[in-house]
Amino acid sequence: MSDTSPASGAAAFQSRDFRRYQLARVMVVIGAEAQALAVAWQIYIITHSAIDLGYTGLALFLPGLLFMLPSGHVADRFDRRKVILVCYTLQVFCTLALFLFAMRRIHHILPIYAVLFLIGSGRAFSGPASSALIPQLVPKDHFVNAVTWGATIFQIATITGPALGGLLFTLPLNGRIAGAALVYLFTLATLIWFLTLVASLQVRPGRMEHRALSMDVILAGLHYMRRTSILLGSVSLDLFAVLFGGAVALMPIFAEDILHAGPRGLGMLRAAPAVGALIVSITLTWFPIRRRAGTLMFICVAIFGVATIFFGLSRSLTASLVALFIVGASDMVSVVIRSSILQLATPPEMRGRVSAVNSLFIGASNELGEFESGLTAQWWGAVRAVVYGGVGSLVVTGLWSVLFPELRLCDQLTAEELLNAEAIEETGQEVRQL
Predict the structure, then answer these.
(1) pLDDT tens-digit profile of 19-75?
(2) ∠ at Cα 247 (244, 252), nearest 5°?
(3) How far is Cα of residue 95 from the mean position of the Cα atoms in its chain?
(4) Entry pTM
(5) Which residues, 6 or more positions from 426, have their beta carbon under 8 angstroms from its beta carbon?
(6) 368: which DSSP letter?
(7) Which of 248, 405, 388, 235 is CA-nearest to residue 305?
(8) What is the SS3 assignment for 136-152?
(9) pLDDT tens profile 209-233
(10) Cβ atoms of residues 265 and 259 within 8 Å
């Protein structure tokens, strides 16, 4: 990490498979973000209910809870590339179903929830496989750079997806292929692009876990994370901070009823956090985090909470966009640190199972957070729900800085720094023997 030459900032792209995978990923995330906007707007127009928006997050989260253990085992037991291909083939059929629903102009939301549950099921298995695949696409020395670029590319897609989704949704077209249907058609094209590029990857990761199937093998990732405080602290901090502070599910309400900005305004609101995250992630590719990573993570989570409160109190579209920009920028620092710790402090043969546990935490913070936001908005109103959530994020940050001193004192993001810690080495040996 001492190399600051321009070439070092893009070191991960020297690997052919990494380039192809990220090219595939940017398109599929754009399609997914556009689709998420269309689904949220479609449901809100049908029901005008905050709790119904929250149920979309719950439908996506439940599969992650149900399939957390088997999905991690699958990622360590089978070719991760093939697991990803199977899961995204399921996504193709799900998006096709949403397209047909929109074409027929159905006014029932239960079929939409059913499709979202299937999408969540695919994500439950593809998430751990995708996360565990990244270290196999680049040399070890380029891994943190690959994580940072992966986050950068994700944010580029997260900016483009909602904006493009809002634009496609509002195009003045006649006929049935308009509005949500047009967005879903676009998402189908991105999924096919993704499947084609992933199928062309040369990496063929073999079986990482060779032991016979048993409950101990399946639970190994959960045991490892529970007994490694730096991992448990980082993922649980993200879980509770975003669970309380997430406002994504309520953005249709802010766009329609508070800021009066319509679908295109919703696209801007959804894209604003990604713009902040993109600028930070690009900066980190050239100027990586060198020291005091744990302290920096806590500071940025606190900034996340303050910016969330500011967004909830804002009545101006411009001020709201600025607040969300800061939300995304501060969250990106946390994402890079947490993602690096997750992979570098985990033995290769357990990365799938540990990633599955992490995927559940991420799903809880995002999808379950959407349900929590919808529920609290139903009780208190959208503004109070967001403000109270931001306060909750600040409380969690203070508590976790005391409960997890190892995370607060984390210094350099290197495998040597993390795996040389005696507690982590002993934990890894003990869990391998389970």
Answers:
(1) 999 999 999 999 998 998 889 888 888 888 877 877 887 788 788 778 877 777 677
(2) 150
(3) 19
(4) 0.66
(5) none
(6) I
(7) 388
(8) HCCCHHHHHHHHHHHHH
(9) 444 444 555 566 667 777 777 777 8
(10) yes
